[in-house]
Amino acid sequence: MKTKAQAGSMGGRATVRKYGRGYMAELAAKGAKAFHAKYRLAKLSTSDFAIVNRETGEPTSKTIRGLTL
Fold first, then answer.
1. What is the pLDDT of residues 11-42, one digit of tens each?
2. Cα angle at 5 between 35 and 63, to 5 degrees?
């Protein structure tokens, strides 16, 4: 039985084979644009940033490194 991570990885590889790397790069660029439109980064330390909602100014409780605040 595969884990969710393994199944997701297989699906991602299948999508790359079907549509190509250019398509995946385009998706990533759109995702980054949407993320940065909704959130900003606030420096926490020399190696991490809090993800902060642009509208409310409230942190999302996550950091760029994936830690919980």
1. 999 999 999 999 999 999 999 999 999 999 99
2. 35
Question: How many residues are given for the chain?
Answer: 69
Query: Among the residues of 1-69, which ranges form H helices?
Result: 4-19, 21-38
Contact 44, 61 (CB under 8 A): no
Closest CA to 67 of 48, 53, 42, 40: 48
Structure tokens at 20: 């190509």
Q: What's the pTM value of the predicted model, to 2 decimals?
A: 0.73
10, HSE (Cβ side, Cα atoms, 13 Å): 6
User: Which among 49, 42, 46 is positioned nearest to 67, based on CA atoms?
Assistant: 49
